[in-house]
């Protein structure tokens, strides 16, 4: 996905999360392991959100692999340590299609 298309998907995801009561803390946090698209908080829980887009749900979500999830976890650990946070947290995904937005809370593989 191009950076421009990624930004559009992430903008839609942020708007969706804001509408559900999330506060966006940071976008595009980078570490040597990878990137976290969106970091948000709701009800004192920190959410590390991976955003994927595609022509349908399957084409979007299939790109969240075990390897990607591993990089997301390592990058989240760096973020938590860097900011000296002591919060509950979870890993979520948002799949963006031309017609729908799918929010998947607490993803695991």
Sequence-ordered SSE layout with sheet pairings:
Elements lengths: L2 H17 L3 E8 L4 E8 L2 E9 L3 H5 L4 H17 L5 E9 L4 E4 L5
Parallel strand pairs: 3-4
Antiparallel strand pairs: 1-2, 2-3, 4-5
| Proper CATH architecture | 3-Layer(aba) Sandwich
**How would a crystallographer describe the biggest sheet?**
5 strands, mixed
The count of β-strands is: 5
Widest sheet: strand order?
1-2-3-4-5
Mean pLDDT: 93
How many helices does DSSP assign? 3
| Helicity level | 25-40%
C-alpha Rg (nearest Å): 13 Å
Which structural category fits the helices and strands?
alpha+beta
Task: Give structural notes.
With 109 residues, this protein is of the alpha+beta class. A hairpin with a 4-residue loop joins strand 1 (23-30) and strand 2. It has one domain: 3-Layer(aba) Sandwich (Trna Endonuclease, Chain: A, domain 1), CATH 3.40.1350. It has three helices and five strands, in the order H-E-E-E-H-H-E-E. The chain is 36% helix and 35% strand.
List the keywords.
109 residues; alpha+beta; Trna Endonuclease, Chain: A, domain 1; 5-stranded mixed β-sheet; 3 helices; 35% strand; globular
What is this structure, in a nutshell?
With 109 residues, this protein is an alpha+beta fold.
